[in-house]
Amino acid sequence: MKIKNIELRRVRLPLVHQFRTSSHAKRHLEHILVGLTTADGTVGWGEIASPSGPFFAAETVDSCWAVARDHLAPIVLATDWDHPADLATAMAKVRGNQFAKAGFDVAAWSLWTTERGVPLSKALGGTRGHVEAGVSLGIEPTIDDLLEQVAGKVGEGYRRVKLKIAPGWDVEPVRAVREAFPSVPLHVDANGAYGETHVNVMRALDRCGLLMIEQPYAPRALIPLAALQDRLETPICLDESIEEVDDLATALRLGSGRILNIKVSRMGGLTPAVRAHDLAVEHGMPVWCGGMHEFGIGRAANVALSALPGFTLPSDVSGSDKYYARDITTQPIVSVDGQVEVPAVAGLGRALDFAFVQDSTTDRWQS
After folding, report:
1. Same domain, 190 and 110
2. What DSSP string runs through 167-206?
3. Is 71 contained in some domain?
4. Known catalytic residues?
5. Has keyword Magnesium (predicted)?
6. pTM of the full predicted structure?
């Protein structure tokens, strides 16, 4: 298969509610759509869901735009491939830049499954018709504001609630949520904001009945994470630490965590995400699919991945309306009683709302 044309679009959408983490706050998202077109006119779409600033990872929208246009696009145009994994291998000569690669990889899977008339989830190895949806909530101005947010999402049926934490906003709000919602599966996400001097905070959180403590230490702190895991009953979940499958192999050997958050964007696409899933399952490590506030294209890819058998915990595949008043696809992702349907049609199962995308585009490039 050869790609005849590549289109990149920077698309900006406002968030319905400000989202704050340990490092920054955001009121809008700008992602890059990647369109791959073959000679016969078949198109596959992917999404580069990098943050605007270098806080979660080193990549930004600007860096992804440059790498996608100047380095990945020429490789993709020059590659003759039979399977999306072939294209992933060709792109591997570009070091890092996983978010940028993910947009092309998802577009390739979308194109490949569309041409073959196969649902994306089935092509990846998915076995479920529905996936359990969790929801991620940011840092709020007050504990009362946080409790209001949790109440709303629990009322909508979400099967798990994740709370963002940071030094100074951790034990007290988490205890308040746990006391108000004693039976709700609850976990916290630090985005690497803590260090070895914060062991007492981690031990206090350990007594809050949590499903997991996600990425308490910095991404490369795999040895300190292993030492912390030995001191906690609550499983540590690895997120930013795992950018490549080799990172997961190292973490498994060290015992740096007991749960894996697989993010399609962070790992460079669906191809490495499936490999990470398979390795985790081989070692008995539960996995779930994390999100980067994806628009409808990236969110559909996450839903398809979450249908794989190793995804035994609720994933961050909340409905599009959690983040956006209007999504870029004609059919938004919908959560009903905490479950999201896995499309049974060919490809991603979502079509772009081209008129809305056009109105929301801030820049465009075409090969």
Report:
1. no
2. TTBSHHHHHHHHHHSTTS-EEEE-TT---GGGHHHHHHHH
3. yes
4. 164, 263
5. yes
6. 0.93
